[in-house]
């Protein structure tokens, strides 16, 4: 049984196959209606349960559309409305029950441990729809988007600005190792990647630079990425964190220090005027809406990988 919890759990070959299948499926459904099923309907008669412990627009919508395009159906479960490791039912029992009803589970959780615990007891695959530690589906969609715009990502340079120690930056570091791109992280000392992920990067020979200088992080870059300064999980003094990160805002000046044809990426939701200016996110180099769309296509391949 295959779970999709972290990018680091899969081989480079498996990850590449997921991206390549997403490209082919996307191409094959040109001019289809948005929710019309693919010709082969590989998920026909099957279903996915989605549990959201935290808010979501993109993950919720894109998984729902992905499953429809694969010919299947979804059900969204609100943890408040089900016996989700609460009252007289353990997480293990909830997992056993879901195993009887559906073919795959997607979980967005505040605690990565819940994913592992739930995954241990489910006899069907589980997909990580964002945890406090990683956001692998978003990064897979970002690889797809990068390649659609810029060609093969291997050997290219990606820059990450701002909070260097969140779910997105963790998954991006893992992706750099698996897809072979160079990664430069510009962040203050306080928000550097954790020791655990830095050690993983060293062991996996990731070409990683962590610098306090934003200009150094974006120099010669093919793509500049950032994320909200305050993540859903953050229990921090927001004012202080924003003050620490203010020099890492992606603005026109910083964009001009990357390659001329560099693209700008953001997983959304966005703190406009904080981590990025309106001019950049709404500008010509921004590909943020394509990133949102590509969640559908990347996740279809991820679901297929889980079920194969
Ligand atoms: N990027 C992303 O995961 O967005 P949502 O929080 O809206 O799902
Ligand atoms: N780092 C952000 C990503 C949102 C998609 C968060 O966890 O809130």
* CATH architecture field of the largest domain: 3-Layer(aba) Sandwich
Give me the side-by-side strand order of the main sheet. 7-6-5-8-9
Low-confidence stretches: none
Beta-strand fraction estimate: 5-15%
- Work out the oligomeric state of the chains in this entry: single chain
Distance between the termini: 9 Å
> What order do the SSEs take from the amino end to the carboxyl end, as H and E?
HEHEHEHEHEHEHEHEHHEHH
The helicity comes to 40-55%
**Count of all domains:** 2
Mean pLDDT value: 97
CATH 4th-level superfamily of the largest domain: Aspartate/ornithine carbamoyltransferase
CATH class of the largest domain: Alpha Beta
Q: How does the major sheet shape up? A: 5 strands, parallel
DSSP helical segment count = 12
**Small molecules held by this entry:** phosphoric acid mono(formamide)ester, norvaline
Care to describe what's here?
There is one protein chain. The chain is globular and about 55 Å long. Helix content is 42%, strand content 13%. The model has no long low-confidence stretch (mean pLDDT 97). Strand 3 (104-108), helix 4 and strand 4 form a beta-alpha-beta unit. The strands form two sheets. The chain has a five-stranded parallel β-sheet with strand order 7-6-5-8-9. Strands 2-1-3-4 form a four-stranded parallel β-sheet, sandwiched between helices. The chain folds into two domains: 7-135 and 293-307, Rossmann fold; 137-291, 3-Layer(aba) Sandwich (Rossmann fold). With 308 residues, the protein is α/β, with parallel strands linked by helices. It starts with 11 loop residues before the first helix and ends with a helix. Helix 5 (136-150) packs across helix 12 (288-307). Phosphoric acid mono(formamide)ester binds at residues 56-59, 130, 138, 267-268.
């Amino acid at each position: 049984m295959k779970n999709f919890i972290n990018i680091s759990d899969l081989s480079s070959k498996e990850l590449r196959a997921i991206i390549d299948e997403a490209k082919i499926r996307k191409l094959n459904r040109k001019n289809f209606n948005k929710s019309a099923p693919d010709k082969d309907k590989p998920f026909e008669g099957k279903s996915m349960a989605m549990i959201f412990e935290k808010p979501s627009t993109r993950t919720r919508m894109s998984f729902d559309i992905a499953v429809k395009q694969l010919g299947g159906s979804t059900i969204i479960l609100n943890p408040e409305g089900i016996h989700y490791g609460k009252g007289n039912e353990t997480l293990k029992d909830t997992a056993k029950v879901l195993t009887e009803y559906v073919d795959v589970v997607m979980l967005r959780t505040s605690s990565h441990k819940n994913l592992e615990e739930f995954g241990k007891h489910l006899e069907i695959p589980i997909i990580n729809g964002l945890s406090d530690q990683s956001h692998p589906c978003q990064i897979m969609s970002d690889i797809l988007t990068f390649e659609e715009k810029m060609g093969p990502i291997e050997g290219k340079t990606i820059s990450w600005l701002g909070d260097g120690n969140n779910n997105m930056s963790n998954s991006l570091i893992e992706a750099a190792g698996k897809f072979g791109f160079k990664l430069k992280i510009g962040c203050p000392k306080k928000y550097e990647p954790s020791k655990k992920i830095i050690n993983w990067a060293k062991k996996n020979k990731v070409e990683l630079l962590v610098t306090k200088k934003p200009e150094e992080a974006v120099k010669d870059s093919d793509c500049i990425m950032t994320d909200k300064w305050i993540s859903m999980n953050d229990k921090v003094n927001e004012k202080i964190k924003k003050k620490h990160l203010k020099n890492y805002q992606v603005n026109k000046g910083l964009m001009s220090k990357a390659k001329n044809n560099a693209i700008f990426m953001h997983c959304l939701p966005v703190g406009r005027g904080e981590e990025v200016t309106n001019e950049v996110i709404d500008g010509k180099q921004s590909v943020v809406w394509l990133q949102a769309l590509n969640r559908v296509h990347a996740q279809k391949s991820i679901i297929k990988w889980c079920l194969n």
